[in-house]
Amino acid sequence: MIEFRQVSKTYPGSDNPVVTDLSFEVLEGEICVLVGPSGCGKTTTMRMVNRLIEITEGEILIDGEPNTAISGTQLRRKIGYAIQQIGLFPHRTIADNIGTVPHLLGWDKGRIRDRVDDLLELVGLSPGEYRDRYPAELSGGQQQRVGVARALAADPPIMLMDEPFGAVDPITRERLQDEFLRIQEDIKKTIVFVTHDIDEAIKMGNKIAILKQGGVLAQYDTPENILSRPDSEFVSSFVGADRVLKRLSLTRVGEMDLEQADGGTEGLPRISDRMTARAALSELLGSGQSSAVVEMEGENKLLTFEAIEALTSTAEQSA
Amino acid sequence: MSNLALLVQDVLEEPKLIDWEWLRENFWEDIVPAFQGHIFLSFVSVAIALLIALPVGVISSRYRKAYPPVTFVTGILYSIPSLALFAILISIPGVAIGPAPVIIALVAYSLLILIRNTVAGIDSVPPETIDAARGMGLTNRQILFRVELPLALPIIVAGIRIATVTIIGIATIGAYINGGGLGTLIFDGINRQFPTMIIAGAVLATAMAIAADLLLLGLERYLRPWARARRT
Amino acid sequence: MLSKILEVFARPDFPEKLREHVVLSLVALLVAVAIAMPVALLIRNTRLGAAIAINIGNVGRAVPSLAILALALPLLGIGFASALVALTALAIPPILINASTGLREVSKDVIDAARGMGLSGGQILSRIQLPIAAPVIFAGIRTSAVQTVASATLATFIGAGGLGDLIVEGLQRRGPEILLAGAISVAILAILTEVGFGALERAFTPKGLKITQKRDT
Q1: What is the torsion angle, in degrees rounded to the nearest 10, for the CA atoms of residue B100, residue B104, residue B105 and residue B109?
Q2: What is the ipTM of this complex?
Q3: Which among A33, A122, B211, C211 has the fewest CB atoms less than 10 Å away?
Q4: Rounded to whole angstroms, how far apart are CA atoms B79 and A63?
């Protein structure tokens, strides 16, 4: 749905491109995470989709049409935009903030009001309580939720999110990430998501684009593939030496192929099938036992070190 | 006839807008004393104002309840136009015309900004710094003089800058009640219909004000070596 | 003494002087706003422009009022018009400085979010930048207004009338009641201006920003 074709960006007066010959495609309904070290051009790349930054070479196609076909302003009203610093308008109420783009698009007041209430509910803020408040009255986490609601307001098919959960503490961030993934299951937007955190990329992305200095694409693949088959030294060191463990966090115990536990389960640790394989490994190691009991589909199954190892050796695993 | 046309006519008809001869002749007699008088008025006023404002500012920052009334009173003083304040002061029996009421008025004017900036300066010191100082065993007095005031200095100097420039400006008016200073040249020039004097007084007063502004701005910047992120 | 002062207020020429003073100040202020605001708007996005404007403003603020009024005399002659030109020039710096700074200090993140959401440049200016900068801009106008009312007192020296006439008359004719009447009326006028424009400033501060201000203090 969003296609980058040999996109480059060099600032006038500079010799070095900040984005070099980028080509990849973001499929409809997928979250594509752009991740890389500082200076890799990930934010620049994202901002070229809605033309806050203009491309020097190449083109970006949205649904087959170049994104230059309509004016920048018109384009942006069709794309949701959420940034790290949020940028809520301090002089407007929460309801006004969220309703900004619908208002620009000419929706009638009743429709805007209903939409605002729905969105507030969606991001976990009670409309009656929050719609007439002002940004300064909200905590960082609440403001960040409003930022997401505001980006979703006009129901755009595409969303650009630049470290949208970055301005809060790690605990709040994890909660926001989980909630957003839950929302995405329903709304299935096409999302370009920028982060510097590889763990966030792995958690949030259907596809990950790892960028190097100068905006060079190092690898574009699913999280599982990037972790199990990194293309280069750069990618494998970027994802971290613990990438095998990271791969384990992609699978839940409940998705694993486990043997029946036949008797002799006393004294063994019990593990939930919602737990990730990585967390389960940690439990197993801590328990001093070599297997654990999982209740799946009404039966008791046995989780062993071998079962976990089997996950890591196979190249193809569902994420 | 429009004023612009008058202006052009003036300039054409009166090439002697500035009588350089007169300036040369009367330099030591008229100009220098006026200049010196002006520096005297300004300097003394700033000094006295600081002597009052700094302690009041420190006290106000400690006892916040005192701050609003202090701001109110000094604010009222600041709002009264200078000529009016001079007039009111010399109406008080015992206050003769001359430098004294001028200095009193100048001091009164600068109190608001100096006190406000002193308080703001002290407020700007991070509480953690004070906490650390106290934790290291400094007494309150030592904290004030070794931590708070030095860190507050840039903002205080900013206030001194504004106060000084204001004082230099208003001191010109003080000449009307015989306070001396460069205003003397201006008023004499008006009375004698002698543009040279007016221009000399006006230009010198302006130059002095701007010079003071730039000097103190330099001092302010020097005291604040960390870049101020507000320079967008 | 009090009754003598009140007699001065009852003089037939008093309302006229008051009117002269108010008109002089008001017109100078309005013209200054009309000049300073467009300039501030024009340079709001350029760094160089803003630096120039602020420097001109700072220098302008340092210039003694009497000096400018006095210079108007040989250059422009005596009377209302000369005083008006001088007072307008004096009124511009505070407005220019505050308007420039206020507009430029609107958070870049807020403007980026606005742009990213699809607001056009004009919409960003009218719906985001101006409302957020309004308190600072009005503070500048207030400062300028009070300063102009004060400086208009000096207009008497170049024959432009105003309440300063009373003060001068009182000094020259040794009439303390005239002196005080003039001084008190100017003082009250200045304080009223301060209070009035202060209320205007508060009226134009968006509610959301008042909360921010309270939080920060």
Answers
A1: 150
A2: 0.80
A3: B211
A4: 65
